[in-house]
Design goal:
With about 160 residues, the chain is mainly beta. The chain has a single domain, classed as Electron Transport, Fmn-binding Protein, Chain A (Pnp Oxidase, Chain A, Roll). The protein is about 15% helix and about 45% strand. A hairpin with a 2-residue loop joins strand 9 and strand 10. The chain starts with 10 loop residues before the first helix and ends in a 5-residue tail after the last strand.
């Protein structure tokens, strides 16, 4: 075991330690001045059932930060292990929707088809979170897909969940 104090000189070590926690993978979408926008995020969590609140955390260093923290409506998509290519597409740029199966909700949110679950949200709050923001969404609609296995992210890589039982 290695112990260290988090700080500027141990930032990479902290990132590696945090990467030991496996997370699911989401793609968050919103409408922007340039059209539909997407971003891949693993910082997603349920906050409350009553009212139904979820959160995610975009990085301040992202060129898409202002669009997502300012979006009144957005959708969070839980991605399946078959959707690695879609997730990769939205890691670096969010405006290339060619060959992506998508549509708009009646509220105008661009949404991906074929995900495991989708949470359509209105912005409830945006909080400071260091080099990220914490965006809290009020869930206004939920769509559950037909099933499949979730895409996971751990130790800097995408992977699959294989149950032991």
């Amino acid at each position: 075991m290695e112990a260290f104090v988090p700080g500027p000189e141990t930032q990479r070590d902290l990132r590696r330690a945090l990467g030991r926690f496996a997370t699911g993978v989401t793609v968050v979408t919103c409408e922007s001045e340039l059209g539909p926008l997407g971003i891949t995020a693993n910082s997603f969590a349920s906050v409350s059932l009553d009212p139904p609140l979820v959160l995610w955390s975009p990085a301040r260093s992202s060129a898409r930060f202002d669009a997502f923290t300012g979006a009144e409506r957005f959708a969070i998509h839980v991605m399946s292990e078959e959707q690695v290519e879609t997730c990769m597409r939205f890691t670096h740029t969010g405006d290339d929707w060619t060959e992506i199966r998508w549509m708009r909700t009646p509220d105008g949110i661009p949404v991906l088809r074929d995900c495991l679950a989708r949470f359509d949200c209105t912005r409830h709050a945006v909080h400071e979170g260091g080099d990220h923001a914490i965006v809290v969404g009020l869930v206004t609609s939920v769509t559950r897909g037909p099933g499949g296995r979730p895409l996971l992210f751990a130790d800097g890589s995408y992977g699959r969940f294989t149950p032991d039982v």
